[in-house]
Amino acid sequence: MSEGAHQPLSEGIPVLGYGLGPIGLGVAALLAGRDGVTLVGAVDIDPDKIGTDLGLLHGGGKNGVRVTSEVPAAPPGGVAVHATGSGLVDVAPQLEELLDRGWNVVSTCEQLVHPWSVDAQVALRLDALAHDRERSVLGSGINPGYLMDTLVLMLTGACTAVRGVHVTRVVDTNARRIPLQVKAGVGLTREEFVRRARHGRLGHVGLRQSAHVVADRLGWRLDGYEERIEPVVAGEPTATGLGVIAPGDVIGQRQRVVATSGGRDVIQYDLEMSAGAEATDVIEIDGEPAVHQRIVGGVNGDVGTVAVIGNLVPVVADARPGLLTMADVVRMAAAVGLIAPPEAVAAR
């Protein structure tokens, strides 16, 4: 074991905040109040944040950690909380720099939840670098990373057989940050929504990654994947964080995924994010026995992502080296098929 790799720590796990937007600062605030972790550094490119005390940025008292634009060398066992973007290719150079500086990484990047389904070459490069540096890299969050994949797999652990899974998530965008309302298309005309969706500028990122995490762990080789998006239109004047939306204009979106294996539908996702929707999360498993779980009121995505990432810090600090998925660190699931690592699936 190289110096600094997964060693016992007397003062808690050293944590670096990398990317200090709402989620990054939320994780910092969460960890600041916890034993067993120590915030030791903070990195951001915003000139208004550089030089500022991290504690003041996340709403606590001064903690002596000044924000910089440069990644410091990691102390033994250090974990970087990376929260900058959704796209794998965009964040890969940042992850490589963190690994080169000796950090283990837990990231909110949606495509990093299953990077092999996005760009296998980038994923293999990150995996090789992580192994070379004897560090761990993991992408997660509430969705993808937990509700529509990891929690699903945990529930299949009570099944002797699984034929398929169906997850429905409904989000009230009025209870979420403005950037998510914009991403959901709130306030657009129907025509503008369709145009932006056609160019990939709308919609939730990560449903494909969730499907692959589930399929890999359950031994399903996916031979088909279809994803559709459509607008949710106001039937009456609707209050939102972006103002009152007139009837006929867009108050959100619906996305639907159907993934097949052996010509059979095995994974279905229905995601609605719209203003005033009745929030809920429902997981249905067609198995022996059948499982039906409903989370009344749903899980707030911002709060949930902060919690998931913060709770994964000690998990990543203790994980094996390499580029990991949540199925590597949360192993409980139905053993209904040949379980292949994602890098092996990507090479098929």
TrEMBL record:
SUPFAM superfamilies assigned: NAD(P)-binding Rossmann-fold domains (SSF51735)
2,4-diaminopentanoate dehydrogenase C-terminal domain boundaries: 146-337
CDD domains registered for this protein in UniProt: nat-AmDH_N_like (cd24146)
InterPro entries per record: DAP_DH_C (IPR045760), NAD(P)-bd_dom_sf (IPR036291)
Protein name, entry field: Dihydrodipicolinate reductase
Organism from which the protein derives: Jiangella asiatica
Organismal lineage: Bacteria, Bacillati, Actinomycetota, Actinomycetes, Jiangellales
